[in-house]
Amino acid sequence: MKIGLALSGGGVRGIAHAGVIKALQKHRVEVQQISGTSAGALVGALYAKGVSVEEIVHFFERSNLFHPRTFAFRQAGFINSSVFTDQISQYIPENSFESLPIPLSVTATDLHTGELKIFKKGELYVSILASAAFPGIFTPIEIDGNTYVDGGVLNNFPIDLLGDCGIRIGSYVNKVDLNSRKLKHSYDVAARAYAINQYHQDKIKFSQCDLLIEPDLYNYGLFSFKGMKEIFEIGYETASKRLETTAIFDGI
Predict the structure, then answer these.
(1) What is the dihedral of CA 128, 175, 243, 49, to 10 degrees?
(2) Longest alpha-carbon distance in the chain
(3) What is the model's pTM?
C-alpha cells in the first residue's frame, strides 16, 4: 500500500517536518510519495532526494536568510529568493523532479492568474523557490513568463495531492493556540488574524489524513531561527507519540 506524506508551509517551523521524518524512519515507515508547500516543499525535496535528517537540519541552520548578501534591492521583496539556488544544488545536484527517488509535488501561487500551480516535473530548483517565496519577504519567482509566490497563499497543506495513496500522513506545523490572549501590539493582532484564517482553511482538510501529526509550536514564529533545535525536537516527539498509538501501519 502506497504511503504518502504531506508537509505544510510554516517558515522556520518547517524544521519540525524533519523531526517527523526522523520518527517515521525510526518506526520503519517508508514513504512512497511526498507533497509540500513552502518550507514543506524544501524539506520534502531534500527528503525525496535521500538527504539525511541531520543534513536537512544543517540546510536550515546555514541558510542565514537575513545576511546582507541576500537582500534584494529595487525588487518586490526584502530577500532575493535566487540566492538559495546554490545551497539547494549542494544537496540536490540534479535540477529535476525526475532525479528524485521519491516522487514529489509542490505548490505555488500564480500572481497573474490567481490560480494554484502544482509542480511535479521538469526543473526542480525554481519550483521549490517559487513554493517558498513568502509574499513581501522573498522576491517572486519567474517561470516561463509567469510570476509565482508561496504556495501557502492557496494551498498551505497539500494533503489533497496524495489522492492515489492508500495511507496519507499529514505533518502540519501551523496549529493556532486559540486560548492565547497575548495581543499587546498591532502586529500581534494582524499576525493572529492571519494565522486564524490560515488555520481554518487548512483544518478543513484534516479529515483527509489517515494520520495527522500536529506539533504545538505556539511559541515560535515564522522566522524563529534561534529555536530551530527545539522546533525539531517538538516535531520528533509529537510524531513519535502519534506513531506509538496508531495501528494503521500494522500488517504493511
Answers:
(1) 10
(2) 57
(3) 0.91
- Condensed to tens digits (0 to 9), the pLDDT of residues 188-216 reads 666 677 778 889 899 999 999 999 999 99
The reply to whether 150 belongs to the active site is yes
Rounded Cα distance between 105 and 201, Å, is: 20
Tens of pLDDT, residues 52-97: 999 999 998 877 554 434 444 445 544 665 668 888 999 999 999 9
Q: Count the neighbouring beta carbons within 10 Å of the beta carbon of residue 193.
A: 10
Quote the CA–CA distance of 218 and 227 in Å, as a whole number. Answer: 12
Q: Is the dihedral of CA 165, 208, 122, 127 positive or negative?
A: negative
C-alpha cell at 63: 541558510
Query: CB within 8 A of 149, min separation 6: which ones?
Result: 108, 109, 111, 130, 133, 134, 135, 138, 140, 141
Q: How many CB atoms lie within 10 A of CB 230?
A: 15
Q: How many CB atoms lie within 10 A of CB 130?
A: 29
Catalytic residue among 8, 105, 150, 240: 150
Active-site residue among 35, 38, 81, 105? Answer: 38
CA angle 108, 121, 116 (to 5 degrees): 20
216 is catalytic: no
In this structure, how many other beta carbons lie within 10 angstroms of the beta carbon of residue 4? 25
